[in-house]
Amino acid sequence: MPQAPARITALDTHDIRFPTSRELDGSDAMNPDPDYSAAYAVLRTDAEDGPRGHGFTFTIGRGNEVQVAALHALRPHVVGRTVDEVCADPGALSRDLVGDSQLRWLGPEKGVMHMAIGAVVNAVWDLAARRAGKPLWRLLAEADPDWLVGQIDFRYLSDALTPGEALDLLRRGREGAADRTARLIGHGYPAYTTSPGWLGYDDAKLTRLAAEAVAAGFRQIKLKVGADLDDDVRRCRVAREVVGPDVRIAVDANQRWDIDEAIRWTRALAPFDPYWIEEPTSPDDVLGHAAIRRAVAPVRVATGEHVQNRIVFKQLLQTGAVDIVQIDAARVGGVNENLAILLLAAKFGVPVCPHAGGVGLCELVQHLAMFDYVAVTGTTEDRVIEYVDHLHEHFTDPVTIRAGRYTAPTAPGFSAALRPESIARYTFPGGTFWAADPGTAEGHTA
Prior knowledge:
Elements: E1 8-17, E2 37-45, E3 53-59, H1 64-73, H2 75-78, H3 83-88, H4 90-99, H5 111-132, H6 136-141, H7 145-150, H8 163-173, H9 177-187, E4 189-197, H10 203-215, E5 220-224, H11 229-243, E6 248-252, H12 259-269, E7 274-278, H13 286-296, E8 300-303, H14 310-318, E9 324-325, H15 335-348, H16 361-377, E10 385-387, E11 401-402, E12 405-406, H17 420-426, H18 432-435
Parallel strand pairs: 4-5, 4-10, 5-6, 6-7, 7-8, 8-9
Antiparallel strand pairs: 1-2, 2-3, 4-12, 11-12
Helix pairs in contact: 1-5, 4-5, 8-15, 8-16, 9-16, 10-11, 12-13, 14-15, 15-16
């Protein structure tokens, strides 16, 4: 008798929270006390000794249970599908999840439901890459361009990027891809670090960490700004004195300002030669970003960490509102939608410098940036991936940084799997860490 095809039998979910607020790791002007968290999903199958698929979306503590509930709502679309079906065409599953006629009302294509869709879609890509025995960046870079185009939803994009234009970009990207793969494996991908710049750190800690970053080979650091202008001027002065004139300093306001305030504040920091101002205002304010960009040049404007879908990215590019596109691996609807955003940025000639940090975002987004280099743009000029040095120890395939550069992953998959012992310890509220924490009984993280 022929063997029945392997099927997805479960979508397991976990509410994972880390107490990062206690050391002010991740603190910024809008989010002073984040507990970095992940709504974590695992696709189990009935394939004997077969791999699982891992995915997650990133939150900062309270509300992570809402994100987990959104993952639960997607189970009926996933459980029961054959493994071959979803791995051969993740785009079909993505379209079904996005197109659910009732769940779509909660977006559409934005917010908690869309992030949950991204986590499930990313778990499918992790499963597909594990079955193929390749790291995801390599699976994407070596994929047939026609197949990749078929993974993208061009609805609402065709006035800016057509399937034919996307196919041309991918076909041109195949030229020299083998050489770039070799260079990537040999030399890695440039990184910058935000680790010195959290807003809650005092000047001594900023000084020490900035000096350590330069010594470790980083040629760009980032500082959080936006709470107090005098403090920001002082901190930027301290950082510039430490790193010298040849290391870039980016600044990040985390959506804190109105338009006029963003212009005034950025101009006040201009003497310290900021490379970009990140998230100067609401991520939904396309025209506001365009106005800020015109007013603060030559300081560049960067955004994307909270941009909710490919349509808003399209408008940012069409209106000339950004100098730097910052994709996030867990904010939009997964790999498929990020493929669209990468191709949009390539068409408009705008460099992509991904947002990372958080829980596992470095692990995920490195794959997308490396695919972009190998198979789309062919360059790392003015392109860097954010790096934050915490929580990597909780992953089975953590990022590796050498001389200020990401080392290309070699293990199969999307680097998304958490260690079982970390799940057991940091599941909220019943994990061993939180069960012993006095604040957990009150229903919130510390």
